[in-house]
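batch job 7 of whatever, protein = small monomeric GTPase
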Amino acid sequence: MDANVVIMGTESVGKSAITVRLLTRRFIGEYGDIESIYGHSFGREFTLNIWDSPYSEDLSVETSLFEKKVQWADGYVLVYSICDRASFNSVSRLIQTIKSTKDYLSADKVPIVIVGNKRDLHHRRTVLSEEGRLLALNTDCLFYEVSAAENYHSVLMLFHGLLDRMKDAKLTSKRPLGFRGIVKTMSAVFARRRTDSF
Ligand SMILES: Nc1nc2c(ncn2[C@@H]2O[C@H](COP(=O)(O)OP(=O)(O)OP(=O)(O)O)[C@@H](O)[C@H]2O)c(=O)[nH]1
């Protein structure tokens, strides 16, 4: 079985760092502007297609690409930095938008994980753990605080949490666009490709 996951959040919150940490177990520091979908297996029976993209103002609103992304995904990883209050506020708005876009599901069933990243930078913290936890409670989402820089295990845990939610929601058969279809769409929109692979 496979499922699609999209990583979202504002600029420099660590979306690529989290993705690369999951895929390679490593933290490499700088990631560049990479738009890509990666496949990652969890055991023998489950593969996640993970779409990581650099933040762009164009995607911050309900553009058609944003909507395609939301429709394509079965699960969502919404990342903010614990040092960046604006990024936390943006996650809160994203949750509402995703839930209203995925209108064929009951809103509380949409598998969403809220991730407070950069936990290692506690001396610069501006968003309390409790705020993240409360947001998750009020919106029926999961919540994790992680440090992509320091820790692989917490990153792995957040994907396992999402996987469990997706299994519960049994969403994988309702996908409007197949994997190949979305890759084509991405190529057309961005007119650029990456060849790196992990
Ligand atoms: N201290 C610390 N720095 C981090 C952590 N995660 C990412 N960073 C740094 O934050 C910066 C942005 O990380 P990216 O992974 O590129 O962030 P992004 O959200 O993909 O950014 P965009 O592509 O601009 O949307 C880089 O300099 C990373 O090294 C973390 O857990 N702790």
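notes: Residues 9, 11-17, 29-31, 33, 54-55, 117-118, 120-121, 147-149 surround guanosine-5'-triphosphate (CB under 6 Å).
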